[in-house]
Amino acid sequence: MVLSWVDFELMPGQVEQVRDPRLQGLPFAIKQKHIIVTASYPARKKGVKKLQLWTEAKKTCPELITIVGEVCRFNRSPDCRT
After folding, report:
1. What is the pLDDT of residues 4-37, one digit of tens each?
2. d(CA 81, CA 15)
3. CB of 37 within 8 A of CB of 46?
4. Whether the model pTM is above 0.90
5. How many other CB atoms sit within 10 Å of the CB of residue 19?
6. At CB < 8 A and 24+ separation, what contacts does 60-67 make?
7. Which domains, ranges and CATH numbers included, belong to the chain?
8. Ramachandran region, residue 47 (left: φ > 0; alpha: ψ -120 to 50; beta: rest)
9. pLDDT by residue (tens digit) across 34-79?
């Protein structure tokens, strides 16, 4: 029996790491509007949480790198081209 665990919540963050390998190992989060959508594992270790207000996340982790999320980047629908 093989068990597999996939963190789909972090998928947008993994896409950003592929786009910019310099983010590897750094605390970063993706925000939409004023809410954190997902956070990297280093950011999570420092207390950043999903659905946290961006201002609170920055207080929790001052060195947090913030990426403005573009939903279309992660969507493959034909009417959503970037």
Report:
1. 666 667 777 888 888 889 999 999 999 988 999 9
2. 16
3. no
4. no
5. 10
6. 61/27, 63/27, 64/27, 64/28, 64/29, 65/23, 65/26, 65/27, 65/28, 65/29, 66/28, 66/29, 66/30, 66/31, 67/16, 67/28, 67/29, 67/30, 67/31
7. 9-70 (3.40.1170.60)
8. left
9. 999 999 999 999 999 999 999 999 999 999 999 987 654 555 545 4
The amino acid present at 14, given as its one-letter code, is: Q
**Can you give the pLDDT at residue 10?**
74
CA angle 53, 59, 69 (to 5 degrees): 45
Query: How far apart (Å, rounded) are the C-alpha atoms in residues 36 and 57?
Result: 8
**One-letter amino acid for residue 73 of the chain:** R
Amino acid at 45: K
At 22, list the tokens.
């310099």
